[in-house]
Amino acid sequence: xxxxxxxxxCSFTAEWHPLNNTPPNNYDKYKIWRGGNLPKVWPTxxxxxxGFDLQNLGKGASSNDMxxxxxxxxxxxxxxxxVVVIGWTSMLRALMANQNTHQxxxxxxxxxxxxxxxxxxxxYFINRSEDAWSQQIIAYIEIINELAKSKKFKVVYWSSDDxxxxxxxxxxxxxxxxxxxxNRITKNYNLIRYLSYLNRFGFKTSIIDExxxxxxxxxxxxxxxxxxxxIIYNHLKKYGKIH
Length: 243
Description:
The chain is α/β, with parallel strands linked by helices. It contains nine helices and six strands; from the N terminus they run E-H-H-E-H-E-E-E-H-H-E-H-H-H-H. It has a domain of about 160 residues: 3-Layer(aba) Sandwich (Rossmann fold), CATH 3.40.50.
């Protein structure tokens, strides 16, 4: 029986969705620009390279709180020998209770929400910008690592937030190279920023670069997903997390 690759994160991990919106969103436009198809996302490419089944539980606009919550809901199904890849996102996202729906929802600093007072959100995200909030991610990682030991699965982390990994390296006693994907040569702790850095060498890693500006979206395009899959695969091989 095959082991499973489990991926958790935000839109930089998720499949291409939602699609077929009216008016069309950027992913619809990207699909049209490509002639009616979309490339494989990096979790799919990575799982194929590993020979693993895939459970991609990334979701666009997720906060780190939601990413951890999603992991908690699925950890019972993660088995010995499985590999978990968690992509932490911007610290300026958070779960809040919607008093109309009585559900938790992700809230982003860059968006307005009619159900939440804007002045309150501004104050809240000023507070969320404090480095101390990274201590919450340390607590999440400590729990995940203990579960990985007891259930005998492998786990690695990466991030699209520079400040978070800088904080972890300097303040988390459990920060070891084998568990965290960073590029020390270019000092890029943000893997998405590193992919963007590669554009200067002719690698059109983002949608906006691949489409020559026709689709103004900074998420990874075909080349970006291929490179990210290779980076994570090489990391897993280097540190013996896969054979």
